[in-house]
Amino acid sequence: MQTRNAKIGFFLFGIYLLLYGGFVFLNAFAPETMEITPIAGVNLAILYGFGLIISAFVLAMIYGFVCRGDDGSTSKQEDAP
């Protein structure tokens, strides 16, 4: 179970790493792109940053949902008598 959860965690971390890498790449190599204001005068850097925060929360919720036990708990340990 722990190995399965670790694999899921690494996979979700990889997704977030790609998203964050895109943010860093744009800031480093195309900073003028981040100055674009697509919505209500808010630039793309701010929107992308908020998107990163929201995606981290969503990925954490996915991890919590997928890795919970059969009884709804997050661990497989039995209670001691």
Explain briefly what this protein structure is.
This protein is mainly α and 81 residues long. It is built from three helices and no strands. The two termini are 23 Å apart.
Keywords for this entry:
single chain; 81 residues; mainly alpha; 68% helix; elongated
Question: What does this entry look like structurally?
Answer:
With 81 residues, this protein is mainly α. It has one domain (2-66). The chain is built from three helices and no strands. The chain has helices at 2-29, 31-34, 44-66.
Could you outline the blueprint of secondary structure elements for this entry?
Layout: H1 2-29, H2 31-34, H3 44-66
* Terminal Cα span: 23 Å
Sheet with most strands: none
Structure annotation, total helices? 3
Mass-distribution shape: elongated
Helix content: 55-70%
Radius of gyration: 18 Å
**Low-confidence region ranges:** none
DSSP strand count: 0
The averaged pLDDT comes out at 88
